[in-house]
Amino acid sequence: MDLITFGVQLLNAIQYGMVLFLVASGLTLVFGILGVINLAHGAFYMLGAYLAYWIAAVTGNFLIAMLAGVAIAFAVGLLLENVFIRRLYGRDHLAQVLLSFGLILVIDEVREMLFGKDVHAVAPPAWLAGSIQLTDNLSYPVYRLAICVFCLAIALLIFVVITRTKIGMIVRAGAENREMIRVLGINYDSVNRYVFAIGIALAALGGIVIAPISTVFPGMGDGMLILSFVVVVLGGIGSVAGAAIGALLIGLTDTLGKVFFPSVSGILIYLLMALVLLWRPNGILGRREV
Amino acid sequence: MSRAALKPWLLAAMCLAAAIALPFWVPTYYTQFASKALIIGMLAMALNLAVGQGGLVSLCHAAFFGLAGYVLALTSPKYDAASLLLTLPLAVLASALAALLIGALALRTRGVYFIMVTLAFGEMLYFFFHDTGVAGGSDGAFINVKPVIGIAGHQLLDLDRPLAFYFLVLGFTVAVIAILTMLARSPFGHALAAARANERRARSLGFPIFRIRLIAFTISGALAGVSGYLAAVQFGFVAPEMLGWHQSATVLVMVLIGGLQTVTGPLLGALVLIGLEEVLKANLAQWKLAEGLIVIAIVLALPNGVRQLWPMLVGPRKPQPAAPKAAPEAGHG
Lengths: 290, 333
Known about the structure:
The complex is a heterodimer. Chain A is mostly helical. Chain A has two domains: 25-125 and 186-218, no CATH class; 220-289, no CATH class. In chain A, 73% of the residues lie in helices and 3% in strands. In chain A, helix 1 packs parallel to helix 5 and helix 3 runs antiparallel to helix 8 (188-210). Chain B is mostly helical. Chain B is built from 13 helices and four strands. Chain B has a domain at 29-244. The A-B interface holds A 31, 37, 39, 84, 87, 91, 93-95, 97-99, 101-106, 108-110, 113, 222, 226, 229-230, 232-233, 237, 263-267, 270, 273-274, 277-278, 281-283, 289-290 and B 51, 57, 59, 105, 108-113, 115-117, 119-121, 123-124, 127-128, 130-132, 245-246, 249-250, 252-253, 256, 286, 288-289, 291-296, 298-300, 303.
């Protein structure tokens, strides 16, 4: 293996980790703040990719597809929170697992009714097509670099909103003590609604940005769901910074594992998870009890 | 035994009689269907030892189920029959070992971490069979000849006959019910339930919580292996999908439908869900949509568990014919 190939794979690993972070941060927000374990998170990732494909095919513009896809996912999130998820706060995890499993069946069938079960490809926007010469003999697709920059920007945005703004303060305080927030006269229910919708929108956004470099297919959410769970467990539930660390670790392990140890690559990330949990049962940046 | 406790035994005997009579009344298709339902019912009961008794919501039991099936596929000669008396213990042992290993790691975590960790380990086994070339990789593998039960060269049961296979499965179902009932009523079962109800108190009473849970998880995985082995025998085929987390989640749904607090509830839940799927598949193109909505409705309509509704739903009527009910309540107070 020469240095150039290694460099490309390293960049791929980082880019993959970035998308993983996007999806996993949505999962960890919903869990850390609402206390809801959502198995349908991967289904929204898939839905995002299908929406991107469909809107891009209709409008011919990937940016519109991106914005509209996120907006639709956000609206669906608000609706679902209002109809179903709201009733799950404070219920046991089993109820949450099962309700979200029911949601997966519903979303899968709706997707099949709307978009069929074909595999699709999405073209990246023209101004992000092609490759860029990074060093003398290392060129890299512009779109993948753009994903890195974009995801980094979203990560910073989440971080700033959560740690530096009043909304973030309310959200953090509510995650610690819901009653206190209610006593202070803040409408915490609507905060919950938006947190859930943002979580869903982040999952869909992950599916949208990945669509041009992967194919869009029915089962694509499954793998992503499991990986996001591993990321969240690695990083510590509810910790966005932990999700970032976990996502990069998983991105590196998965991508480089596929290059260097192809036959066991599927198992490496779980091995990593087992080792981390032996060291810290609540994840790298996890708080004590959940 | 008091008079109040006698009645359930009568009910159990009636169910068992109905289950024995069933294959002589219905076409072969339904005998095979009943075998399949009982096998999945066994898996649901096995899972319930961890979930209902132990409070350990596991999303990896399909992996123990599938692993046992794969052991049969891997140990079966290509054109010859394997010995059931040899391969079944081997398959169950493999499932038990996997459960012991995964349990030892996962039980270090609590609550939702436990769910996620079991999910991840189950997927690890799924990817092991999916990605490596073992037993056909993602295509799965056929078991060309069903295993035989033989003693000194004499074949005791021809498992190719649906009737013989059905009775084998029924026998295992009754055995699993007996084992789980005895476990639930034993001091061990009470300790397990105590750890679920109030971990801190159970710990301060001196119970070795970790060990108790690990043993329960391992037994649960081993029984899931029994069911997986029988499933592989019935279908003559194993594929990675047997181990997938969708399968684990579906079985959890069965456990919830049937009720967490009884030994045989999950069996009934399995019969209900499999029957429902059969009806939906036959009548609806969008059967998954209907099933999903029904699952959601069950979760939302029964906020305090199915226990409340379950006597209302099934109590007054006669129980399902194919469900041998042995235990009234998995005894823990």
